[in-house]
Amino acid sequence: MRPYLYIIASMFIWSSWGVILKITGIPVHTVIFFSSLVSATALGIFLLKKKGLSGFSYKKWAVSLIGLGLVSLLNTYAFFYAYQTTSIANAVLTHYTAPVFVAFLAPLFLGEKLTLRAAFSVAIATAGLWIMIGASPAELYALMITGDNNTIGILAGLFSGLAYAFIILILRKLAQALNPLATIFFQNSLITLFLIPMALKSPPGMGAEIVLTLLITGLLHSTLAPFLYVSGMKHVTANNTAILGYFEPVCSITLGFLMLGEAVGMNTLLGGAMILFSGYLTIRS
After folding, report:
1. Secondary structure tally for the chain: helices H, strands E
2. Are 80 and 32 in contact (CB under 8 A)?
3. DSSP code for 219
4. Residue 205 — very low, low, confident or very high, per pLDDT cuts 50/70/90?
């Protein structure tokens, strides 16, 4: 029972990102940089003490690690940007197209077979996305040109789902060579390195409230939550772990309603339900 609670707890922690970003208004790159820095520092100290970084062929896996850091940055940036430009429901539901993207991309990158169920899932997710947007392709293009925040936020959420799918594909290869906590360490370390130029170019006004927020998110969201998730995965099947992941959108939308008063429209409910159902079909297959 405890491993299942670990995974659910990690999902609940991650689900609060949207509320934190909207309430604080801290720039996306600032949140990502400092949260990753705090996490990489904490995990680095832990792994050095436990000698968790020894016996690993860095040269052999350098390309995979750099790729993981890059797509992780793209995923997080797009996801957080979606949170700040559209509703929490739109952001988190479009992000959960990731399992469908994995099913579609795995045959290309891992040589896995594309099943009929996976193709059906892609069709359902696509239809759900169009229902959420509520516009024809021509109208969507016009909304993008005019800079409609809601539309751009939905597309950013969709892009984060695609980036997360690539994270999953890379992790499938890295899992055979690197333990999960070391993977998280390298992931956050590389994100920090990638963002140094931006962080130095536009340093934030670091008031006490911002410092406390970034410290909490670094320790809680970027360190504790992944640790709980990895600990739970050791005793829970991959299938059940993926299904438990659906606690995140449910909690995110609930927190958005309770703390920000964000109502969920019928288009979002119907389209989001179709996206989640398509992901569930993919996971079950």
Report:
1. 15, 0
2. yes
3. I
4. low
DSSP 135: S
pLDDT of 203 over the 70 cut: no
Q: How far, CA to CA in Å, does 262 sit from each of 84, 90, 147, 231, 253?
A: 13, 11, 21, 33, 8
Q: DSSP state, 65?
A: H
Token representation of residue 136: 């024809």
Torsion of CA 3, 221, 226, 111, to 10 degrees: 120
Predicted TM-score of the model (pTM): 0.86
pLDDT for 128-172, tens place per residue? 887 877 766 677 667 778 878 888 998 999 999 999 889 888 877
Q: Rounded to 5 degrees, what are φ and ψ at 187?
A: -60, -50
Q: Is 3 exposed, middle or buried (0-12, 13-18, 19+ CB in 10 A)?
A: middle
**Segment 33-55 mean pLDDT:** 86
Residue tagged 């288009």 (tokens): 267
